[in-house]
Amino acid sequence: MLMGPQRGYWCECWTEDLTEQRRPARLASFDAYTAPQADRWVAVALRTISPALDPDASDAAWEWLCDGRIETRRALLRSEPCMVSITHESIRITWTIRPVIFLPLAHRQITQLPACAYDFTPQATHASD
What we know:
It contains two helices and four strands. The chain has helices at residues 35-49, 55-77, and strands at 6-17, 25-32, 82-88, 91-102. The protein starts with 5 loop residues before the first strand and ends in a 27-residue tail after the last strand. Helices cover 29% and strands 30% of the residues. It is α+β, with helices and mostly antiparallel strands. Helix 1 runs antiparallel to helix 2.
């Protein structure tokens, strides 16, 4: 049974090496359906990595956890995008949270594929060397 569009938050974690001329790399993403779920995703990540961070980055992480998280939650409830960044040595880690509307799609675990799935012939794949 498909449901209609649902409001939520698209969360991403990006890393960037500040000593190199490369674009940031997305490390992880998460679809949250409530503001608490979205900011909890960032909080769990920060709590998990904080023991391994340099002192300045660890302080920044705990500052957000103790003070900034409340303002992030308020902004999300106002449907405003949010960003949390810390820099550990030469690596910047950034979490972004954006309000979105999730569109319903066919369930990924469905046992009966839709009829159109049988209209295409699979391509032969080659094993990489």
